[in-house]
Amino acid sequence: MSIWIKHELCSGCGACVKVCPYAAVEIIDTKACINERCTECGVCLTSCKEKAILTDVTEKTVPDFSDRKGVWVFAEQRDGILNRVTFELLGIGQLLAKELNQELSAIVLGSKIDKLIDPLAEFGAENIYIAIHPSLNDYRTIAYTSVISKLVREYKPNILLIGATHTGRDLAPRLSRRLGVGLTADCTELSIDPEHGDLLQTRPAFGGNLMATIINRYSRPQMATVRPGVMQQIKGKSPNGPRKIIKSVSLSEKEIMTRILEVVKEERQKVNLNEAKVIITGGRGVGSLEGMKKLEALADLLGGEVGGTRVAVEEGWVTVERQIGQTGQTVRPDLYFACGISGAIQHRAGILGSKYIIAINKDPMAPIFQVADWGIVGDIHEVVPLLTEKLQQR
Amino acid sequence: METIVMIKQVPDTTEIRIDPSTGNLIREGIESIINPDDRHAIEAALQIKEKLGGSIIAICMGPSQAIDAISEALGFGVDRGILLTDKCFAGADTWATSFTLGRAVEKINNYDLIICGQQAIDGDTAQVGPQLAEYLHIPQITYVKGIKEITEKKIVAKRLVESGYEIIGCGLPALLTVVRELNKTRFPRFDWLIDACNKRAPIEIWNAADLGVKAYQVGLQGSFTNVISTYTPTFKRRGEILEGDSQRMVEDLLTRLEENHLV
Lengths: 394, 263
Ligand SMILES: Cc1cc2nc3c(=O)[nH]c(=O)nc-3n(C[C@H](O)[C@H](O)[C@H](O)COP(=O)(O)OP(=O)(O)OC[C@H]3O[C@@H](n4cnc5c(N)ncnc54)[C@H](O)[C@@H]3O)c2cc1C
Ligand SMILES: Nc1ncnc2c1ncn2[C@@H]1O[C@H](COP(=O)(O)O)[C@@H](O)[C@H]1O
Description:
The complex is a heterodimer. By secondary structure, chain A is of the alpha/beta class. Helices cover 26% and strands 27% of the residues of chain A. In chain A, strand 2 and strand 3 (31-34) form a beta hairpin. In chain A, helix 4 (141-155) crosses helix 5. By secondary structure, chain B is α/β, with parallel strands linked by helices. In chain B, helix 2 packs antiparallel against helix 5 and helix 3 packs across helix 4. Classes of the chains: A alpha/beta, B alpha/beta. Adenosine monophosphate binds next to helix 1, strand 6, helix 3, strand 8 and helix 4 of chain B.
């Protein structure tokens, strides 16, 4: 593609020189000449009365992707244990594959992965692409990028989903650049456009103030990372069992470039907010560690977990892995109690999947009431212990 | 040690409001700030410079007013700023952004370390850093929450993961994306801020031609992904506010929980 000047037609009037934003046209010996600063923006084309400026720049077209088939899911594992988000990806993957009438595949990398095959098949993977190599034992960016990009180039999937975990958000962008394809981050909804069959990728933007639906029209596979805790797991084994495709791998340390010198597990209380049926979350209104104890008592009684807003975490009333919201966890319990929480959009972003939301706040104008099923305007220090007491009596 | 920090100018999302009738963002009166994570990127670069010497360049792609972000960076002690601005850069997705930033780095052609924020608060994608690292064929360490060791030749950093952290080492040049736990940011120096707003301040402005890119490679045209619609999230909830004194409200709540088989 380029822009050039037909010198027989050029009158040397210099109109194009004036309109060019880049000083990319000069008059040399009474004729306009385009230099290397030209960005092919096309501004000069209409300025020429003699129609001496020509171009072969065309409209961007959508390539033919009819050979791209299949929905792929990256099966994330650490120490031989699959990350929950893998099953969630398979869940949404099943729905998308069905809609497109294409197959669902998982792709798993590691050094020992025999135990991972059955669970992947049980949650819907019809094909499992496997790469085994000692260098793949722990996730490393370039090792995984290299192996997955080769698989994608060979088998040409239509869609590739990756969990928006720390691993996924390190891998997916690197991979997208290597494959030369677009990528949508941290999706909370995925569906198929009935008209063109494109993947509709919906995600929050501006801190959850806005939802945006994005499509990837010009490149394949359509890549997206998906927020953990949002999609449903669906059991469903394909009748002909999983087809295993084992790929041989050659990797050198020199090519991988990074080394993991140590893996430090931070002793964290085991929390599984994702699976909790009841969550009692405290915000600034909790006021102190003492205040938090009252919420814990209610949580214990209901067999639930406690959570915190960013404020509660920063105050040290709740540990950071219990933060709920945009930068914390996304949860979907049956029952969500928001206690002393204003309901900032960044917090609400993490709780919308809850079946029922109960808000307790002394400010009747607090935005949390807009997203609550039932609201109590009152002091949590009074209401929460009362609720606990009455529940015990029943 | 030559360090490049990538800074983005973003609207302060804690202040954001949506026009209920149009569903659009109300941008008027909203302050533009340096993306919070990028402030930590600047701080990291300053600390490294204090230890190893060298210089720091801040690069920002954005509209012409994004020069304010660069001036602020100079106020912190960054040596040089480059604003990438051009009509045709507008509407870029992360693919086009990482390409444009990558061309700027190639033009500078002398660097040991690139530091980005983990993610920008307007888009929250966390994609630009790793995509830039791949474009430049250099290693990346994301979610950096600590730097254990840095020399002219290599870096050892703590990378935050869900179950704790990893200690990762690699040779330079490399790209880091950093999280706010990494450091405490300092305040800018007033006299440096004033100098940064001076005409002779070391700030350059580069457009598409300066980067040697074509219009179709950047901005909206150079993007693979397109936003096809936006909407404000709606909440379908009962929205029932219970009434009476605490006893009454708690009783009513319990009744409703029981009716719905929730307790
Ligand atoms: C990029 C970004 C990401 C963020 N991510 C998150 C996130 O993941 N999670 C998150 O939670 N926040 C997040 N935030 C912060 C968020 O914007 C809010 O600041 C935070 O959620 C507010 O917490 P809060 O409701 O506890 O405090 P406040 O907003 O101060 O609200 C406290 C509420 O408690 C009520 N109250 C006080 N005392 C009592 C009492 N005795 N009884 C009853 N009610 C009482 C008050 O009326 C008030 O409504 C983020 C912000 C940004 C900019
Ligand atoms: N327009 C930009 N100009 C400079 N740096 C950017 C730009 N966009 C993104 N970055 C860098 O990439 C990081 C991640 O941004 P994002 O991928 O948009 O979440 C930011 O914290 C910045 O360091």
